[in-house]
Amino acid sequence: MEEFVVLVNPQDEVLGLMEKQQAHVNGLLHRAFSVFLFNQNGEMLLQKRAAEKYHSPHQWTNAVCSHPRIEETYLEAAKRRLNEELGIEAELSEKFHFIYKADVGGGLWEHELDYVFTGTYHSEFNLNKDEVAEVRYISLENLDKEISEHPEQFTEWFKIILEEYKHHF
C-alpha cells in the first residue's frame, strides 16, 4: 500500500499530501512523531530497524517513529504505530515538538515537524518483523556511550531527537 505524509509549513498548517518516499527524496517538511518508552528502571527502549526498511536498515532508534495520516492526531498515530510495530499499547504524554532536517543517506532526507511523546512500558512485545528486528532497554548513560563510540549504529534522526530531548529534561 502506498503511504503518504502530510506536508506542512513550520506553523503545522497542512499544505497537502505526498507519497512518503518522494517527500524524503525532496526533503520537504512533513508531520512526524517520535515515541520514547522507558521501563520501571528508567531505561530507554530501543528498536533495531528491520533489514527490509528502505532507509536506515539495521540501525538502532527510539521505540517508534513515523508519520500521522491526514485524518489522525499525532497521539492517535503514535498509539497506532506502537501496536503495528511493537504489538503493544502504552499511555503516552506529549512532551515537545520541534523541526529538524537530517540526511539519512541514499539521497533521502528526513525534514520533519516532530512531536515527541514519552511513556512507560515493562511487559512483553509482539514485534512486527517487517518493521523491527529486535528491541532492548538501555540506560541513558550507556546509550550516550554507545552513540559516542559507534554513531553509525544509530539513526540520524534519533541522535538529533535524543539531544533535543535532553535539552527539555
Gist of the model:
The protein has 169 residues and is an alpha+beta fold. 25% of the residues lie in helices and 39% in strands.
What does this entry look like structurally?
The chain is an alpha+beta fold. It has a single domain, classed as Nucleoside Triphosphate Pyrophosphohydrolase (Alpha-Beta Complex), CATH 3.90.79. Helix content is 25%, strand content 39%. The protein contains 4 helices and 9 strands. It has helices at residues 20-26, 74-86, 140-149, 156-168, and strands at 4-8, 14-19, 30-38, 44-49, 60-62, 64-66, 92-105, 108-120, 132-138. The strands form 3 sheets. It has a 4-stranded mixed beta sheet with strand order 6-3-8-7, sandwiched between helices. The chain has a 3-stranded antiparallel beta sheet with strand order 5-4-9. A two-stranded antiparallel ribbon has the order 1-2. The longest helix is centred in the middle third of the chain and has 13 residues, at 74-86. The N and C termini lie far apart (38 Å). The mean pLDDT is 96.
Structure class: alpha+beta
> How many DSSP helices?
4
Number of strands: 9
Do you know the CATH architecture?
A: Alpha-Beta Complex
Strand % is: 35-45%
Unreliable spans:
none
Oligomer: single chain
If strands are numbered along the chain, what order do they take across the biggest sheet? 6-3-8-7
Shape: globular
- What's the story with the biggest beta sheet? 4 strands, mixed
Distance between the termini: 38 Å
Task: State the domain count.
Answer: 1
Q: From the 3D structure, determine the CATH topology.
A: Nucleoside Triphosphate Pyrophosphohydrolase
Q: What value does the average pLDDT take? A: 96
> Helix coverage percent of residues?
25-40%
